[in-house]
Amino acid sequence: MKFRVVILSTVVAAFLLSSCGKGGGKFANLNDSASYAFGLSIGRNLETYHAKNIDYKILAQAVEDVLSGDTSKVKMNDQVAMTIIQSYFTKLQKETADNNLKEGKEFLEKNKKESGVVTTPEGLQYKIESAGDAAVKATPSDTVVVNYTGKFLDGKEFDSSKKNGMPARFVLGGVIPGWTQGLQLIGKGGKIKLFIPANLAYGERGAGGVIPANATLIFEVELLDVIKGKAAPATK
Length: 236
Prior knowledge:
This protein is α+β, with helices and mostly antiparallel strands. Helix content is 39%, strand content 21%. The protein is elongated and about 75 Å long.
């Protein structure tokens, strides 16, 4: 059933693409449309896995070799190919993690000199936009309700409560250390900007295929409410 769905999706995509060729023109026929659809699928997969420095001529040659039906043209078997792909992604992940760590340290070193930015002994940086009610502050055992926006160092937004359709609600001690530390610095109604190094965020693991390894993250957070001693599932 799975393969039938994939084939059906490919055929549908081929028909849709038949009217949107290069430069807005049409592909000559269904075969050309299908060729583009298969290429699009491969490209999307490479994009999803953040593949870099792929030689597309060699990639195309491999496809041609396999589809030729001449096994003598195929330069490696499937097992060797899978081993090479795994080695490629292991190397790519390490390079990405190392680069993210370096970029994060450089950013934080510069950012700590910005007006209003405070650095904690643990390395968290923050800027309080509004202190909120000092009489109503959260502890790690409390539930907080927040609006937030999360961004990478390049300014790209990766998450927000607005995108999720409602404020986030979670036990403060059950989330990343940067949030646990940062939200205790403001009271109900307060706003804070958090600059969270990797070791206080998601570290070498990253998160959900969205946050890469060793990423330094920026959050703008508004503390809407503090519910003393209430339990709630973590959503951040």
